[in-house]
Design brief:
Elements (H helix, E strand, L loop, with lengths): L1 H30 L3 H16 L3 E7 L7 E8 L10 E2 L4 H10 L4 E3 L9 H8 L5 E9 L2 E10 L8 H52 L4 H16 L3 E7 L4 E9 L13 E2 L1 H6 L10 E3 L9 H9 L4 E9 L2 E10 L8 H46 L3 H16 L3 E7 L6 E9 L10 E3 L3 H4 L1 H5 L4 E3 L9 H9 L4 E9 L2 E10 L8 H59 L3 H16 L3 E7 L5 E8 L30 E8 L2 E9 L9 H99 L4 H10 L1 H33 L7 E3 L1 H11 L1 H4 L9 E5 L6 E3 L1 H32 L10 E9 L2 E8 L6 H4 L19 H12 L3 E7 L3 E9 L3
Parallel strand pairs: 24-26
Antiparallel strand pairs: 1-2, 1-6, 2-3, 4-5, 5-6, 7-8, 7-12, 8-9, 10-11, 11-12, 13-14, 13-18, 14-15, 16-17, 17-18, 19-20, 19-22, 21-22, 23-25, 26-27, 27-29, 28-29
Length: 998
């Protein structure tokens, strides 16, 4: 009883766990609407709960006979995946399909003991299955797929609870599949609705573009492109009818690979449309064919469509008002097509809108033509008012009028007032097909009788066809002579009298003149009459202007003479040639009222350049231009009678041609008057005198400058020689002192060796004597008195000290000799480190500490390199100058800082004073750097530090020649470079570069 109770509790516990698992799986299924996510969640959860080797969802392909594939799975490690494997069990339909469709579940504990067919066992073995549990997934009584649980490792007895669990999972999967189907259908409906909305939006956009103020070609192009994209057709085209119901394609949009239809010649003729005068399209009916071979079309119609590569089409009429203008057609070329009602409706809407656009275009074209007429009239009137030249007015008028009226010829005919109605054409514009009538003498003896009175009253005569107007034969003959078939003639009246005619000719065919054209011609003729009246007034004014101009010119001539005198006076007041050029060119330009006056100077080879110019605002200077050669001008008697842009006169310096004085009128040619050229010639003569005087002054200044420079160089040379002699004398003095010291020192140093040997011998004797014999009391007293032990100990030390002092004296003597090097005035290979050390030894007393400052620290960084070819003594002089300046700078730094702290009543900290000396070999150059940490050198001082006699020291403390001579020695004597870099407050560095081989 107790065992049964435990068993029941275990069952209840197991069922409870399964219910929890079932609720968890169902909850996850309901969390998602994505079928793949639901499947994957389900197989994963089920395999973990049942501890199976594989759980998979199998889906049948409804279009194939029980064939399908696994669409989702979860498989344990070590077993093959069955995902996406195409499965076809040929015995499935016979044994399992019916039972699965009825909802039966198949539970197989061992495939080899379940009585399955061999083919089915082989099929299951393919997937490593030994036991399986299959639950059908049916959707609306249709077997959609299977939920498969596989045990691959061993046989398995499936429990009822497990089977019931899987069945419930399958039921919820079926619900999820049904929901997914419904969701898909809803999405499809939403997509269709979106397509309808999008189609309506596209149609609205196309209508907006059609209604926008674009030209008709752009409308056609945009419409065909948009409709083809909307309908996804292979071609959309617009076809326009001719009067005989033939027609042409005016615009199209087609997919890649199809032959264009626009531009096909000759016109396309549809016999049905020609016979029916537009057929169904006249009644605003559409026409569609899903398959041209099944639509009952005539053979000729099918042949025509085959030329268009069409297999299906839909067409809608385009009505311009009440008249049939054409059709818009959509073609499917790749295959037949079932045209939908909304597609035909869209095509009809677009056809209607194109008809409206065509109507608007026609009205707009008419309005534009009228506006062009008015614009042309306004333009002609404006040009008549802008110009005072009658020939220009006539030519402008006939050109504009012919373009506006699209006539073959427009002319202006003028009567000769001295002859009876005889005249000639004085202006014309014509098409190439017509011949010119310019200067043709015309006399119509019947003109005065038939036409003169009418034209004098301002009447316009418009003839549509000269052969239908019942004109006299003489008049027709004259018109035939000029190829006229139709014409319109308007009178040109001047002060009420008939001055001439404005003639519009149509030569190729008759022409019915519109009232607006007649009115336009009348207005043009009226404005030409105004121009004739203006011309008469203008000629009267011009006569008065000439008289005033002559009087004004006489006044200007007097002013020019006064200005010429003032200009000559300015030339004589100045001796600076540039000032003379500037003031004179400006004065002459203002005097002659020209745009530019320039002075051109010749070189020895007769090339030359502009050396001065004065020009009006807006022109570029020529005085800075490159040298140029002026072409030779051949003088002629009529040279000054022709308009030119410039005139020029020669400038002579004595008998020599120096240059040209040129006056320019750049904007237009100018008739140069004789008095203007004479004025230029007089100024040029004064120029020659001024140039000669200026050159003499310049020559005097140049000689003075050369003498001043020579004197300065002489002073510098003299000072350098004196400085050189001082240094040479100092060198000789040092060499002499060194020689005089060297002799006694050498004597002392040599005897010290013997003295040391003798002393050692004596000390040995004394020592032996004290050890081996008894000393008398007298001797002993003397030994005690003289402190013999101390003497024996101190005497060798005294000799050694004398030796060290003597060696030091020898080193000083050697340094003096190295520094002076009086025997090395020529180039010689030396070790420059010896020169630097010798200089430091000589300056040693300045480097030591004293009462005023601490010692200056010397830091040397010498590189190893071969001997340097140089002038040793001169190079040592450079080292001396630079090191002395560094010491001066450091002393000044210490004094400045110490004074600052004294003023603040503070204790002065330790001030480091350092000089760095370094050498190195770089790119065949010996580089010597001498740097200090002094106060630095300001930029304004550094830029002049190598100038002769430049010094910042107090009077008497420096000559200003040290750095100048150093620069000369390094740069001129050694072909090197010496540079200075300095930062205020941080220090200064001098860099010397000397070539390794001089």
């Amino acid at each position: 009883m107790e065992q049964n109770s435990n068993f029941t509790e275990n069952q209840l516990q197991e069922q409870l766990e399964q219910q929890k698992a079932l609720a968890s799986v169902i909850g996850r299924i309901r969390e998602s609407l994505d079928l793949e996510t639901i499947f994957q969640t389900t197989v994963t959860q089920v395999r973990q709960l049942l501890n199976a080797d594989r759980v998979a969802v199998f889906q049948f392909d409804l279009e194939k006979d029980w064939e399908g594939e696994f669409v989702s799975e979860d498989v344990a490690l070590g077993w093959d995946s069955a995902l996406a494997v195409k499965v076809y069990d040929h015995c499935f339909e016979q044994k399992f399909a019916s039972s699965y469709q009825q909802g039966q579940i198949q539970a197989v504990a061992d495939i080899y003991k379940a009585g399955l067919s061999d083919c089915h066992i082989a099929f299951l073995s393919k997937f490593q299955i030994k036991a399986n549990l299959i639950v059908p997934l049916s959707r609306q009584k249709e077997l959609w797929g299977l939920l498969c649980i596989h045990q691959c490792s061993e046989a398995r007895n499936w429990k009822e609870s497990e089977i019931e669990f899987i069945r419930q999972i399958a039921d919820h999967l079926v619900v999820a599949i049904q929901q997914a189907k419904h969701l898909h259908e809803v999405q499809l409906q939403a997509a269709k609705l979106a397509q309808v909305v999008q189609r309506d939006q596209v149609i609205a956009q196309i209508v907006d573009k059609i209604r926008s103020p674009l030209n008709i070609e752009t409308i056609f192009k945009t419409t065909t492109q948009e409709i083809r994209q909307l309908l996804q057709a292979d071609r959309v085209a617009i076809f326009s009818f001719n009067a005989d119901w033939s027609g042409n394609f005016l615009a199209e949009s087609f997919a890649e690979g199809w032959t264009p239809l626009v531009g096909i010649q000759p016109a396309i003729a549809d016999t049905y449309l020609q016979q029916t005068q537009g057929g169904r399209y006249v009644n605003n009916e559409t026409f569609t064919a899903n398959d041209i071979y099944q639509a009952g079309l005539t053979d000729c119609h099918v042949t025509l469509l085959e030329q268009f590569q069409a297999k299906a089409f839909a067409t809608a009429p385009i009505l311009q008002g009440d008249q049939l203008w054409g059709v818009i057609a959509a073609y499917q070329n790749t295959s037949r097509r079932q045209w939908q009602s909304y597609e035909v409706e869209s095509l009809t809407k677009i056809g209607t809108q194109i008809g409206v656009a065509l109507r608007h275009h026609k009205l707009l074209a008419h309005a534009q033509y009228q506006a062009e007429q008015q614009k042309t009239l306004t333009s002609v009137i404006t040009r008549i008012r802008e110009s005072l030249d009658l020939d220009t007015i006539f030519q402008t008028t006939v050109t504009e009028a012919r373009k506006m009226l699209q006539a073959d010829r427009v002319t202006v005919f003028r009567f000769d007032p001295q002859k009876d109605w005889e005249g000639e054409f004085i202006s014309e514009d014509f098409v190439p097909e017509c011949k010119s009538v310019m200067a043709e003498k015309v006399y119509d003896y019947c003109f005065g009788e038939n036409f003169a009175p009418l034209y004098a009253q301002g009447r316009v005569n418009a003839i549509a066809d000269i052969y239908q107007a019942k004109f006299p034969g003489c008049y027709v003959q004259i018109l035939e002579k000029f190829q006229v078939r139709a014409n319109m003639v308007a009178p040109l009246l001047k002060k009420g009298e008939l001055w001439g005619l404005l003639c519009i000719h149509q030569c190729t065919a008759p022409r019915y003149w519109q009232p607006s054209e007649i009115e336009f011609t009348s207005q043009i003729a009226e404005q030409l009459g105004v121009a004739l009246k203006q011309d008469s007034y203008l000629k009267q004014v011009q006569i008065q202007v000439v008289q005033l101009a002559e009087a004004t010119e006489r006044e200007k001539a007097m002013e020019r003479q006064e200005l010429l005198a003032a200009t000559i006076d300015k030339i004589r007041q100045s001796l600076d040639i540039k000032t003379i050029f500037r003031t004179t060119t400006q004065a002459v330009r203002e005097l002659l009222e020209v745009e530019r006056v320039a002075i051109y100077r010749f070189n020895a080879d007769w090339s030359g350049k502009f050396v001065a110019d004065s020009f009006k605002d807006g022109w570029k200077p020529v005085a800075q231009a490159q040298p140029m050669i002026i072409k030779t001008f051949e003088d002629t008697e009529d040279d000054n009678k022709l308009p030119r842009n410039e005139t020029f006169v020669p400038i002579r310096q004595g008998e020599k041609l120096w240059g040209l004085l040129v006056a320019y009128q750049n904007s237009q040619p100018r008739y140069w008057k004789e008095e203007e050229i004479n004025l230029l010639a007089q100024v040029a003569v004064q120029f020659g005198i001024a140039i000669q005087q200026a050159e003499l002054l310049e020559q005097t200044k140049r000689q003075t400058s050369e003498l001043t420079q020579a004197l300065q160089e002489l002073k510098q040379t003299q000072t350098r020689l004196i400085q050189g002699e001082k240094m040479a004398g100092l060198g000789q003095l040092l060499a002499g002192v060194a020689h005089e010291i060297n002799n006694p020192v050498s004597f002392i140093f040599g005897n010290l060796i013997h003295l040391n040997e003798y002393t050692q011998e004596l000390l040995k004797v004394v020592k032996l004597y004290r050890q081996n014999s008894s000393l008398s009391s007298t001797v002993q007293k003397q030994i005690d008195k003289t402190d013999l032990d101390f003497l024996i100990e101190d005497l060798p030390k005294t000799l050694e000290s004398m030796k060290v002092g003597t060696e030091r004296i020898c080193e000083i003597v050697l340094s003096l000799r190295n520094f002076s090097r009086t025997d090395e005035a020529e180039l010689k290979a030396v070790d420059i480190h010896e020169g630097l050390d010798s200089t430091l030894l000589i300056l040693g007393h300045r480097l030591k500490n004293n009462n005023e400052r601490p010692a200056i620290e010397i830091i040397k960084e010498y590189a190893t390199f071969p001997l340097l070819e140089c002038y040793p003594a001169q190079l040592n002089q450079v080292f001396m100058n630079l090191l002395s300046n560094s010491i001066d700078a450091l002393e000044e730094k210490f004094k400045t800082i110490q004074q600052k702290y004294l003023q603040l009543s503070q204790r002065c900290p330790r001030i480091p004073l350092t000089i760095w000396i370094s050498t190195q070999a770089v790119n065949n150059q010996i580089v010597i750097r001498i740097a200090d940490n002094g106060l630095g050198i300001p930029e304004e001082v550094r830029s002049h530090m190598f100038d002769p006699f430049f010094t910042t020291k107090a009077p008497g403390k420096g000559t200003g020649l040290g750095l100048s001579i150093s620069h000369q020695i390094v740069v001129e004597k050694h072909h090197g470079q010496i540079r200075c870099s300095s930062k205020p407050g941080e220090g200064t560095e001098f860099l010397i570069e000397i070539p390794s081989s001089n």
